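Hi again,

Forgot to attach this to my earlier email, sorry! This is the prediction with aspartic acid bound. I've pasted everything inline since the attachment limit keeps bouncing my files.
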Amino acid sequence: MSELSVNHLLGIKYLNKNDIELIFETADHFKEVINRPIKKVPSLRDITIANLFFENSTRTKLSFELAEKRLSADVINFSASQSSVKKGETLIDTVNNILSMKVDMVVMRHPNPGASVFLSQHVDASIINAGDGAHEHPTQALLDSYSIREKLGEVKGKNIVIVGDILHSRVALSNIYALKLQGANVMVCGPKTLIPKHIDKLGVKVETNLHKALNWCDVANMLRVQNERMEISYFPSTREYTQQFGVNKTLLDSLDKEITIMHPGPINRGVEITSDVADSKQAIILDQVQNGVAIRMAVIYLLASKIKQ
Ligand code: ASP
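Structure tokens for the complex follow:
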């Protein structure tokens, strides 16, 4: 039986191509399950999962919880704002207390880059990184590639541009690793101030002209400007950002071909994309959300089968 090469999902950086293929094949199966009238399988009846969210989340938190419940796991939820973390407890103490209640797996979102790697070295549970600061968001990148594969047949050889705030985006970094691993051609596009200096070392093209980038690509993944991670201003005004890097229907219609539009959410309508684009048939934003549940079921299932051995 095939299995993942890792015991935790800390980042796409730690996966290989076979891991991604195995996750996708497993997600294909779970996607079929969640479209049945009875959307549940008893696979993880003996597994307990703690969702630890030290940072806000809507989609990711609900998606993980739903994935866990569809697999029949026992689930406990923790959110930092209502916890003893505010009283000064350390991350390891918090997690060890939770694990002493016989928890097998921890899904964690944390504002500090590297928090889940750190945790995996100090506690005895399987860890899934649900976003660590501006570092990685591996399940988002997996569901993004899975959605491209579903829409275009395969990821290999496709031209994908990631547009916007590359500097502060964990979605961008995880997507770059995942897409390169699968043989896609990757470009980043945005204001120079929001593109990390040596990003070309990751094997991606850099373009600051959105029209050129869109004409080159098959898929454009539009990122949100991460205002919460900015202490200074990286562009003159939101209006100017939208004029240069926002996608609207007129711009899409002026291209030589029909491209696919993605967005990890939450969308700032009217900033990085207009509503007529977000709601158009070229956008696969809600497919991404739906695929997120199947991908997370696959990741949890594959990691849990390694715990059980
Ligand atoms: N939801 C994604 C994340 O958690 C993207 C975003 O927040 O803009 O990173």
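The chain is about 40% helix and 15% strand. Strands lie at 48-53, 74-79, 105-110, 126-132, 159-163, 185-189, 205-207, 219-222, 260-262.

That should be everything now.

G.
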